[in-house]
Each structure stands twice: as structure tokens, then as C-alpha cells.
Design brief:
45% of the residues are buried. The two termini are 39 Å apart. Helix 7 (316-324) packs antiparallel against helix 9 (371-385). This protein folds into 3 domains: 26-61 and 218-291 and 524-547, 3-Layer(aba) Sandwich (D-Maltodextrin-Binding Protein, domain 2); 63-204, Dipeptide-binding Protein, domain 1 (Alpha-Beta Complex), CATH 3.90.76.10; 298-519, Dipeptide-binding Protein, domain 3 (Roll). It has 15 helices and 25 strands. By secondary structure, the chain is an alpha+beta fold. Helix content is 24%, strand content 23%. The chain has helices at residues 51-60, 120-131, 149-153, 183-186, 197-202, 264-272, 316-324, 357-360, 371-385, 407-421, 432-440, 458-462, 469-472, 477-485, 490-507; strands spanning 31-37, 65-67, 73-75, 78-83, 89-94, 99-101, 115-117, 164-168, 171-175, 220-226, 235-240, 255-261, 278-281, 292-306, 339-341, 351-352, 355-356, 397-401, 426-430, 446-452, 510-523, 526-527, 530-531, 538-539, 544-545.
């Protein structure tokens, strides 16, 4: 181990935020004032799922692989790697200049040294944790392709039997049960970040839950994390991890100062008043695009879902009647930019081979519209259900979360149904929490459901149909997911995605209507702040500020 000596550049006065900037003409050295929505649930990469946690983790840790802004998979903490001809063996040669940095902060885990190398053993421990059923990692199934992974997840084998081996300190071998074209992409997710076994156990069950229970091998380390659910001055403060900044992988800002807010409106107001420099949102109404830089990512598919317990909507012909009477192209205004017409399941932001999946596979092949077919399906449904008049729709409304979409568009859709089928379906706009409750309790007839992946992958989109009651009743989501995981190359993967989109659409249990944008908004004196709309993470590693 080496002893790291840092120049002290922070002077704490009455407020933590009295720290000054070290801005230079090249945009480096800035202290970013930003916010996260909600207190991070956990800074444990193998467990966390919320956007606040993902943002901190993205800046706190780094893994084997990463992705660039175009979705290309690149080496991160890896110098090189090889894949066996049969696609079952991955061997990674790790960089020897990636270090754990530990801010001692009155913790006695390390007596003298504040930093030490990240080794292959740290990745072995991380993958074992993911697969260990006692941990209940939400990412376990994603990594079930690792040799013996399925048995470990099912508690039929010990985590130590996983096909992940530290050959030596800087050589990592991962064996798979079957070739998986998605595997390198999985290694670019937060879940694949390393975990040091000794430090993990030193936290005594607190790993990732407070500022004394995290280490950094990434761009920044946590200096202070304070949260009082009944207080107002909630902060998470990060400092540049200089030991991991070098000529090849330079970390540009000096500090990240996050306030923890409970309401997005408060964050938007802070941005308008110039107190923070960027924020993420699903809605850019009221944002001046001339004074700010707005980047968008079309990461959500908005589709109609139907209550499978409902007598009428459990009827396939009834769902088809509604689907075939939707002329999506006539619903949107010509100048609409927030949403676009959707015919497919996988949204345009999903990348494959550095391109949008929707560029490789056009969703126009899934377009269906025809009034005569809609009328025929309605007649079949009425015969199957032994009903004559469409009066059964009188109490049916489309459940939608407020702010998801301009409800004028849903009213236009409702009008199309009335014109084509003589049925009227209203709109029921509710808060997000009420929407979530009613979906969980199946208290709806039809709902406009936002389908969004956990990370940038078609697999993560499709797997939403496994275990989600409002999505899975018309398809076998687990079977679809298993088929994708066993694709051995990219061409097979593309073919599988295309086939599975067709299978989902043929069940009419999820009917795509729109693709929706998510946004990063930043003041125009910033650049190179990157946003992952799937995880909600904002990456500040090479962010520059010219104010």
C-alpha cells in the first residue's frame, strides 16, 4: 500500500457550502452545486436502484466496462480482455492504477494508508454478492448466465461456486453457463462495480448507508452525507478522488455538492434562481431553451395496459378492437417534441452497436390500424361476452399519472374510439403515488403505463414483463428473458428482440402509444455532463464549467 498525501483545499466554516471553487479557464476545478430527488436509498452498487443512489454511485465507483455517450461499450478499469471462441470464458487484465480511496473520517478501518489497489478479488466478491440469495440483489437474474449462477440464486449452491475467479491480483476470469451477447453490457452497469470484502464486513451491516460505510474507486469520494427526514439542510458532499485522476482518465471538477430535496418543484425553483447548475426531469415546460442546454433521451415507452381481472378487457378481441381503432399519427400536434408515436416496445434510447435499436429495427413493421378490423373485433368480443351495447364502457377511464403526458392527446385518442366504435372512455389523472397504488391493487380498467428499463438494454426492457402483473398476463415474460440471455451474438440478439416485440404486441396486453423523452437541463456555461435516462444517473467526471 502507498500513503496518499492530499493538499487540504476545503476550509469548513459555519456552513459546509463555504468551500470555494478552483475554476480555471479550461473549465476545470469547479464545485458543482446540484440536487438529488430524495435521499439515496443505498450507495451499495449491488443493491441500489433509485435515481438518487445511481447518481452518487456513478460518481463514487467505476467498474470493468463503461459506455460512451453513443452507447458503445468501452474498457474502464480494464486494460484488455479476451473472449473464448465459444463465448463462455472472459478474461480481463485489470488496470493497476485504479485505487480504493478511503476518507478515514474517524473510522478505524485503515490505520495508516488511505488508499490501496482494486484487485480481481474485489470483483469476485461483488459478483458473489449479486448472486447470493440472502442479499436479494435486484440484479441477480441479470447475471444468472455466470456459471452456476442459476443454482446459486435458487439456493442450490454456494456463492463461492460462481464462475468468477481471481487468477492473480490483476487477472479476472469469468465463466458463463452459456454464451450471452448482453454480458459485456451488463459489466458496464453500476451493479458490476467492485466491492472490497474486508471493508464490507467492517461496516457491520451498514455498507452503503452512511458516509462512514462507503469507499471510492471512482471519480469522487463521499466527504459528508447528512439526512434528517424532518430537517431541511440535507446534503451529500463529494470531493475529487485525486488518486484515480491521471492524464488518461482525468477527473475535471473538484467538488460535487448535492442538496437532498423531496419535491421536484423545489429543485426546478432552485435551478431558476441559479442555486444549482443542472437537474433531470420528465417535463421541460417552462424551461427557457435559449438560456439553458437541454439534452433529451427517448427512454420510455408509454403503452396501454388492461386489467386482466376485468371481464371485458380479459377478452383478446375487445383489446384488439381498441388497438385497431387507434390512429396514432393523428393524435399528436406537428410541433410536439416531448413525445413521438410508438409502435414498438423497445424505446429509441436503447442502443446496440453504438446506434439506436430503433434505427436497426424500425417499429413501422408493427403498425396496425384499421376501422373495419376494429369493428369486426368488437363484434366478436360482444358475441364472446354475450353483450349487445357498448354501455359497459360508461364507467371506464384511462388511468394516468399527472405530468406523464398532455391529457389532450388522450382525449383525442378517446374521441377516436368513440368515432370508430361508439364507446366513450374518459381520463382519470391522478398523482404518481395514487397511480402506483392503483396499479398495484389492480384498481383500474385501462392505464397508460410507462415502460422503462433499469439500464440501457433491450433485455432490461423485456424483463419488465417478467413478474409485473399488469404486463405479464398476455406473455410469458420469464421465457422471453431467458431467450434473450442465451443469444450468443449481436445478430441473434437483434433477431430475438424483433421476434419478442411481435410476441408481446400479438397479445395486446401492452399496446404502445408514445415514446417519451427524459431530460437533463443545465445552465449554458456547462458542458460534458452526461445523463443516463434509464438509471437516472448524472455523471460529472469530465464536466466543465466556464462561469
Amino acid at each position: 500500500m502507498k500513503k496518499l498525501t492530499f493538499l487540504v483545499c476545503i476550509i469548513f466554516t459555519a456552513s459546509l457550502f463555504s468551500c470555494g471553487n478552483d475554476d480555471r479557464g479550461d473549465g476545470s476545478g469547479h464545485m458543482y452545486d446540484v440536487s438529488v430527488l430524495g435521499n439515496p436509498q443505498s450507495l451499495d452498487p449491488q443493491y441500489a436502484t433509485d435515481s438518487a443512489s445511481n447518481t452518487i454511485i456513478k460518481n463514487l465507483y467505476s467498474g470493468l466496462m463503461t459506455t460512451d455517450s453513443n452507447g458503445n461499450i468501452m474498457c474502464c478499469n480494464v486494460e484488455s480482455y479476451t473472449i473464448s471462441p465459444d463465448g463462455l470464458e472472459y478474461t480481463f487484465t485489470l488496470r493497476q492504477d485504479n485505487y480504493w480511496f478511503f476518507d478515514k473520517n474517524d473510522n478505524d478501518f485503515i490505520d495508516d494508508d488511505e488508499y490501496f489497489p482494486v484487485t480481481a478479488k474485489d470483483y469476485v466478491f461483488a459478483f458473489r454478492r449479486i448472486l447470493d440469495p440472502s442479499m436479494q440483489s435486484p440484479y441477480a437474474d441479470d447475471f444468472s448466465c455466470i456459471r452456476n449462477g442459476s443454482n446459486i440464486i435458487a439456493d442450490k449452491a454456494l456463492p463461492e461456486t460462481a464462475g468468477v475467479i481471481a487468477v492473480d491480483d490483476y487477472t479476472l476470469n469469468i465463466s458463463l453457463d452459456y454464451p450471452c451477447a448482453e454480458f459485456l453490457g451488463l459489466l458496464a452497469t453500476n451493479a458490476s462495480c467492485p466491492c472490497n470484502r474486508e471493508f464490507f464486513y467492517s461496516t457491520k451491516g451498514r455498507y452503503g448507508l452512511d458516509d462512514r460505510s462507503v469507499m471510492s474507486n471512482g471519480s469522487f469520494f463521499v466527504r459528508q452525507w447528512f439526512y434528517d427526514p424532518y430537517g431541511v439542510n440535507n446534503i451529500l458532499y463529494m470531493k475529487k478522488n485525486s488518486v484515480n485522476s491521471n492524464e488518461e482518465n482525468e477527473i475535471i471538477p473538484s467538488f460535487l455538492s448535492f442538496t437532498i430535496e423531496s419535491d421536484e418543484n423545489d429543485i426546478r425553483n432552485m435551478f431558476r434562481e441559479g442555486n444549482i447548475e443542472c437537474f433531470t426531469t420528465e417535463n421541460i415546460d417552462g424551461i427557457n431553451n435559449k438560456k439553458n442546454i437541454i439534452t433529451s433521451s427517448c427512454a420510455t415507452t408509454l403503452g396501454l395496459v388492461f386489467n386482466s381481472d376485468d371481464k371485458y378487457f380479459s377478452c383478446l378481441s375487445m383489446r384488439k378492437a381498441l388497438a385497431f381503432s387507434m390512429d396514432r399519427g393523428k393524435i399528436l400536434d406537428e410541433n410536439e417534441t416531448d413525445i413521438t408515436v410508438a409502435y414498438g416496445v423497445i424505446p429509441p434510447a436503447v442502443n446496440l452497436l453504438g446506434r439506436s435499436y430503433r434505427e436497426l429495427v424500425s417499429d413501422k413493421q408493427y403498425e396496425f390500424y384499421g376501422i373495419s378490423e376494429a369493428e369486426r373485433c368488437l363484434s366478436v368480443a360482444q358475441a364472446e361476452l354475450d353483450i349487445e351495447e357498448p354501455a359497459y364502457f360508461e364507467d371506464i377511464k384511462i388511468l394516468v399519472s399527472a405530468g406523464t403526458i398532455d391529457t389532450d392527446y388522450l382525449n383525442r385518442l378517446s374521441q377516436q374510439w368513440y368515432d370508430a366504435l361508439g364507446v366513450y372512455i374518459g381520463i382519470d389523472e391522478v398523482t404518481q403515488s395514487e397511480f402506483n397504488r392503483r396499479i398495484a391493487e389492480k384498481d383500474y380498467g385501462i392505464a397508460l403505463y410507462p415502460l422503462k428499463a433499469k439500464y440501457n438494454s433491450g433485455l432490461s426492457v423485456i424483463e419488465q414483463f417478467d413478474g409485473n402483473e399488469c404486463l405479464e398476463y398476455s406473455v410469458n415474460g420469464k421465457k422471453l428473458k431467458d431467450e434473450i440471455q442465451k443469444c450468443s451474438d449481436v445478430s441473434e440478439l437483434v433477431e430475438c428482440y424483433c421476434k419478442q416485440e411481435s410476441q408481446i404486441l400479438d397479445g395486446y396486453g401492452f399496446v404502445p402509444v408514445f415514446y417519451k423523452n427524459s431530460y437533463l437541463v443545465m445552465s449554458n456555461d456547462n458542458e460534458d455532463i452526461f445523463y443516463d435516462a434509464f438509471t437516472g444517473a448524472v455523471d460529472f467526471r469530465i464536466a466543465k464549467n466556464y462561469s
